[in-house]
């Protein structure tokens, strides 16, 4: 059985980060174990995202990072739900209803 994880896509392309192509936040990680959160963060980094404390968001400069991250979450067994500005990204696979 898949665990559901909502990825909230954001527009962080303003100010000093004008080259940002995609960004997200995760709000439903509180119920996950520390090791699960570390694996999720590892998939984000592997996909090309970096954590920006000043924006409280994961940020990438390539759109392909979004697809790679979602695929990585699916490998970890998460059913991904998209929220926020995901419609502005290229079509992303959604695995939960």
Overall description:
The chain is of the alpha+beta class and 97 residues long. The protein contains two helices and five strands, in the order ββαββαβ. Strands 3-4-2-1-5 form a five-stranded mixed β-sheet, with helices on one face. Helix 1 runs antiparallel to helix 2 (64-75). The mean pLDDT is 84.
Number of helices: 2
Biggest sheet strand line-up: 3-4-2-1-5
* Classification by helices and strands: alpha+beta
The SSE string, one letter per element, is EEHEEHE
Mean pLDDT: 84
Largest sheet: 5 strands, mixed
Per DSSP E runs of 2 or more residues, the count of β-strands stands at: 5
Radius of gyration: 13 Å
User: Span from first to last CA?
Assistant: 14 Å
* Low-confidence blocks of residues: none
Indicate the overall shape: globular
Give the proportion of residues in helices. 25-40%
Tell me the β content. 25-35%
């Amino acid at each position: 059985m898949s665990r559901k994880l909502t990825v909230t896509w954001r527009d962080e392309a303003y100010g000093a980060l004008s080259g940002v192509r995609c960004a997200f936040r995760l709000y439903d990680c509180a119920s996950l174990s520390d090791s699960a959160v570390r694996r999720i963060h590892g998939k984000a980094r592997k996909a090309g995202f970096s954590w920006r404390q000043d924006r409280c968001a994961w940020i990438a400069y390539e759109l392909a990072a979004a697809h790679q991250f979602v695929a990585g979450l699916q490998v970890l067994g998460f059913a991904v739900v998209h929220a926020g500005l995901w419609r502005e990204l290229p079509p992303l696979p959604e695995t939960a209803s």
